[in-house]
Automatic annotation (TrEMBL):
All copies of domain EAL, residue ranges: 1-249
Position of the signal peptide: none
Superkingdom: Bacteria
The name this protein goes by in its record: Diguanylate cyclase/phosphodiesterase
């Protein structure tokens, strides 16, 4: 696989960078943080989507050093921001590798970032296999003081037992539901149900992929507590985060 070959040298050649997408609390319309999203600028192909290269990196294990770079870089960036959080995606493969808790500890310390300002986004695929070990790691991460979110909720298995086994701080409702609120009563019912579940459990619920004013009104009405999506901002380079904070504050 040509892409796999190129991926092996990408970290050394500084071909990765992060972009940051605003996350907004609905009650106060206040910016609370940014999700860090990985970008690969391939020397000849241009930007390659993480949807394309992350599965390859997960298969060959490169996601471990790449994920370490993402975490350290995101924490270092966030340390220069005023009091807002940075959310970092963790691959299930990173849970199976050794030393995740040590890595998070050292990334925070090196950056001088308070743990409360780091949020880790975990998909339920991370919880599927070996769930006892994974739950143990999640508890250790939580004990550091970082927050933990359940990402892409509603697609995949969406087992409610995950919500019982581990006290997530946030459920992120997959954007496929938000995108179909206008035409699908099923999506409305699902978003409403996840939001009320969150409310009862004391867990924040973020609606992902909010692009329009109508969708914003809809997810507010459904009871979601936070939003993320193009309506409030597309992912922006680190250099523009300061301006985005000024605009949204
Ligand atoms: O940014 P974009 O929508 O193109 O991301 C596509 C997918 O890649 C999403 O599922 C997103 O969670 C994932 N992704 C983006 N950045 C990272 C990262 O740093 N680590 C991991 N594991 N996944 C990421
Ligand atoms: O799986 P995860 O939620 O981490 O993926 C986030 C991805 O969703 C990013 O790649 C980001 O570019 C994309 N995204 C964020 N907001 C929107 C939006 O409003 N509309 C669409 N279509 N994609 C979005
Ligand atoms: Mn995410
Ligand atoms: Na998501």
């Amino acid at each position: 696989h040509a892409l796999e070959h190129d991926l092996r040298g990408a970290l050394e050649s500084n071909q990765f960078h992060l972009v940051f997408q605003p996350q907004v609390r609905l009650a106060s319309s206040e910016l609370t943080g940014f999700e860090a999203l990985l970008r690969w600028k391939h020397p000849s192909r241009g930007l390659v989507s993480p949807a394309e290269f992350i599965p390859i990196a997960e298969e060959n294990g490169l996601i471990v050093p790449i994920g370490e770079w993402v975490l350290r870089t995101a924490c270092a960036s966030a340390a220069s921001w005023p009091d807002v959080t940075v959310a970092v995606n963790l691959s299930p493969v990173q849970f199976r590798s050794r030393g995740l808790v040590t890595l998070v500890t050292s990334a925070l310390a090196e950056a001088g970032l308070p743990p409360q300002r780091l949020e880790l986004e975990v998909t339920e695929t991370a919880l599927l296999d070996d769930s006892e070990a994974t739950i143990g790691i999640l508890h250790q991460l939580r004990a550091l003081g970082v927050r933990v979110s359940l990402d892409d909720f509603g697609v995949g298995y969406s087992s409610l037992s995950y919500l019982r086994k581990f006290p997530f701080d946030r459920i992120k409702i997959d954007r496929s539901f938000v995108g179909t609120l206008g035409e699908s009563p099923e999506s409305v019912a699902i978003v409403r149900t996840i939001a009320s579940l969150g409310s009862v459990l004391g867990v924040e619920t973020t609606a992902e992929g909010v692009e329009t004013e109508a969708q914003l009104a809809f997810v507010r009405e459904c009871g979601c507590t936070a939003v993320q999506g193009y309506y409030f901002g597309k992912p922006c380079p680190a250099a523009d985060v300061g301006r985005t904070i000024e605009t949204l504050k």
